[in-house]
Write a structure and sequence with these properties.
Helix content is 36%, strand content 11%. The protein is α+β, with helices and mostly antiparallel strands. It is elongated.
Length: 113
């Protein structure tokens, strides 16, 4: 195996970091969310300990099966293209609110300056 000379290590996420990232997650509705977006946002800060635990588990390469799902739509790159050919389509991934947060936690841990 080839040594790339790069070691990826993420510091454990903190509660303050989760609160900060929650403010940046778009409040869009997804069919994978367990409730409407407004209900989730009303109770999300009461559930921070659960969200914190899920974020820590995701950093240790464990992710709940419910967070491994996405709804994928295809959109034409340009209206002049043929919709029957996949190479002209762009995939759009619709993720649950918690999956969006986990994605931002991972991104912020590895790509902070």
């Amino acid at each position: 195996m080839r040594d790339l000379g790069v070691v990826l290590y993420a510091e454990p996420v903190t509660g303050d970091e989760i609160r900060r990232l929650l403010g940046k997650v778009p409040a869009k509705q997804c069919a994978l969310d367990p409730a409407s977006t407004s209900l989730i946002w009303q109770s999300i800060f009461h559930q921070l300990s659960v969200i914190f635990a899920i974020c820590l588990y995701s950093q240790s390469c464990y992710l709940p099966a419910t967070q491994k799902l996405a709804i994928v739509y295809h959109r034409l790159k340009k209206l002049i293209f043929d919709a029957s050919k996949p190479e002209f389509c762009q995939p759009i991934f619709n993720l649950s609110l918690l999956s969006k947060l986990l994605e931002r936690v991972d991104y912020s841990e590895y790509y902070t300056c």
